[in-house]
Amino acid sequence: MGINVKRMIAAIIDFFAIAMAAMIFVGVFTALKIDRTVLDIVYSAFLALLVLFKDFVFKNASFGKKLLQLKIVKTDGTKPRFIDLLLRTLTLVIFPVEIILVLVRNKRLGDALAKTAVVEAVKQG
């Protein structure tokens, strides 16, 4: 399976993982009978944090990337910094453009800006 296919599958897995976490969050806070306005604000912040920090969960890989044995590296092969991972994630605001770029150029705008790449994770040991 090619890396672009793995990236797309990883993105779908991440979407469903974030959706599941969000549903659990809403269920818990709804059961606590929190004011709807407060719930909306807290939920929006929670969802934004889940999306922004998804690639920090498993040392430079989201849940989906980890399952498919992918990781994020700098284009020079070094480990990406916090700001690099955050920058590549911020471009997801224009998600449709990102999908087209991966399909056409094999690289997301976020990867180009942060000078990162998604590669196969090499198992050690």
Task: Describe the structure in your own words.
The protein is mainly α and 125 residues long. The chain has helices at 3-31, 36-52, 63-67, 82-90, 95-105, 109-114; strands at residues 70-74, 116-120. A two-stranded antiparallel sheet has the order 1-2. Helix 1 packs antiparallel against helix 2 (36-52). It is elongated and about 50 Å long. The model has no long low-confidence stretch (mean pLDDT 89).
Secondary structure: elements and pairs:
Blueprint: H1 3-31, H2 36-52, H3 63-67, E1 70-74, H4 82-90, H5 95-105, H6 109-114, E2 116-120
Antiparallel strand pairs: 1-2
Order of helices and strands: HHHEHHHE
Mind telling me the C-alpha Rg? 16 Å
Please give the count of helices: 6
Oligomer: single chain
- Strand order, sheet with most strands: 1-2
Ranges where pLDDT stays below 50 over 5 or more residues in a row are none
Mean pLDDT: 89
Percent strand equals 5-15%
Describe the main β-sheet briefly. Answer: 2 strands, antiparallel
- Label the structural class: mainly alpha
Number of DSSP strand runs: 2
The coarse silhouette is: elongated
The first-to-last residue Cα distance is 24 Å
Q: Can you give the helix content as a percent range?
A: 55-70%
